[in-house]
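Sorry, explain these tokens?

___
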Amino acid sequence: MNKKTVRDIDVKGKKVLVRCDFNVPQDENLNITDNRRIVGALETIKYLLDNSAKVILCSHLGRPKGQVKPEFSLAPVAKELSRLLGKEVKLAGDIIGESAKELVNNIKEGEAILLENVRFDKREEENDPEFSKELASLAEIYVNDAFGTAHRAHASTAGVAAYLPAVSGFLIEKELKFLGEALNNPKRPFVAIMGGKKVSDKIEVIEKLLEKVDTLMIVGAMEYTFFKAQGHSVGNSICEEDKLELANSLMEKAKEKGVKFMLPVDTKVGKEFDKDTESKVVKTTEMPEGWIGLDIGPETVELYSKELENAATVLWNGPAGLSEFEQFAFGTNSIANKLANINAVTVIGGGDSAAAVEKAGVADKMTHISTGGGASLEYLEGKLLPGIECLDEVEK
């Protein structure tokens, strides 16, 4: 996408409203347990500060549903930002009220402030034009760097762009570069690994990928719908009975397109959904009655690893099993470690896969880890993202 970035405009002395994704997890004492999203926004924020902008940051946190709820305050984020930047980031007591206006009026070049949670006002998610206009009136330039919410047409992600020059930050630029290149101009062979629970969640992505990839590997609970479609028993595994025809048509489409469509050859099954359940490895085509498929088996890991060794581009979205339980995390961890050790462009499509490479300690070995689960899926499906569509085009 040919969108302007912060590099394409003069920000010196200007009030710049930056939409970030500070929707970070916290413990019961409101301590941030994972600051990756805040760290991800630093490059854009530092660039603006270094170029003498007056930076007004905004974000949502959680789902307060238009109500002011202290547990969803951005106070912990302001504190963490101040620590990471080495300078104070003051938090406004509201979004577009007296407190916000006072901070905005007194902000100096090279300083940053943070508005309170934009979702404390129900008009944010309604993309209310009046609210968008008021938010925009605080600034002279709008920067969207919240890829995680770019698929939502909210006031702070799209609405404000109607009233201000609108450009992307470095995080969105990076997302579009790597996801876009993986889809439109991949180095080949191009391998996609698709996991997760349901085929129905990933239909459009799989269909789109079948037009682009050389190999498609299926992992996770969605594999059982494909096996059932082929007439195999899947025990008590998750299976979408109403998607069997679809599963067959996807396998047929792969054949027509000359795409190598890989399904697991063995499965680690458990008696029940429990971290300490009895488990064993079986051939995927010989699932025992009453057991549940909860991970790919060692033979599959070996088979997939061999295929991945030749890949030049790999896109991974969705875990290989119930990886939150240690005894069913082998498949997911093995994929993460394999991707860390191959000479390929590795793009991780956000969500659980991003958490998996982080947990395996190999995040720094990946070419790109997407910050937006839902947004990256919609982008891969070929959908237009409102938070990106609204940005100004580079003049040709």
User: Anything to note?
Assistant: DSSP finds 13 helices and 15 strands in the chain. The chain has a mean pLDDT of 94. The longest strand covers residues 15-19.
